Amino acid sequence: xxxxxxxxxxxxxxxxxxxxxxxxxxxxxxxxxxxxxxxxxxxxxxxxxxxxxxxxxxxxxxxxxxxxxxxxxxxxxxxxxxxxxxxxxxxxxxxxxxxxxxxxxxxxxxxxxxxxxxxxxxxxxxxxxxxxxxxxxxxxxxxxxxxxxxxxxxxxxxxxxxxxxxxxxxxxxxxxxxxxxxxxxxxxxxxxxxxxxxxxxxxxxxxxxxxxxxxxxxxxxxxxxxxxxxxxxxxxxxxxxxxxxxxxxxxxxxxxxxxxxx
Length: 262
Ligand code: ZN
Known about the structure:
Blueprint: H1 5-14, H2 17-22, E1 28-30, E2 33-36, E3 48-51, E4 56-59, E5 65-66, H3 68-76, H4 80-90, H5 98-106, H6 108-127, H7 129-140, H8 145-150, E6 154-156, H9 161-168, H10 173-178, E7 182-185, E8 188-191, E9 196-202, E10 208-214, E11 226-228, H11 244-254
Antiparallel strand pairs: 1-2, 2-3, 3-4, 4-5, 6-9, 7-8, 9-10, 10-11
Helix pairs in contact: 3-4, 6-7
The protein binds zinc ion.
């Protein structure tokens, strides 16, 4: 769901940032601003400063900063859109989700499969000896643990372990195929991604809709370096942009964006 830019702006204008942040942090007036203990680091002396006129916050110790939405988003660990809705409710501006809600519901089962699959790949990367090897590869490519966690990078095992695991979670094989993580051939089911490092891909609403899988060991002949999910009901390659969902608030604040093709 995309919230109209004008609505986001209106909510930002109307919202009393000190009141919203004040629900999470005890704020005290200090000159034109308010100060309090920063919730984003282990703060002993109040280093969080909130400016009601500029409608921003900044921590002078850890550098956390942003507007009312980023505060709520980071503090409550919720997606940007949820943060906008939350602040909207607080200042009496409802955020319309009508039509898109139905749309989301229709695809709910696929989103659930893709989410569960992402958890599975993450777990496999962190907790197996194959995962250890993949992690070493990622570290060599300068992707540290923080980045791995942040982008939910995982590992797809060989064989059909994902299929078996989804089956145990009561998902239907046909839905797994529709979601693009399992394929079938002569009534046998196989995992689409095998022995690849997995990058989940979000759509503009923040739902994981597909994956990009990269080989990290020596390629067998004819094996593509990257394998992407095939297009399906939820994954349309041309309508997503990697990391767009999580970066939109930052883009809005900085008012510029760098796009990389790689
Ligand atoms: Zn801080």
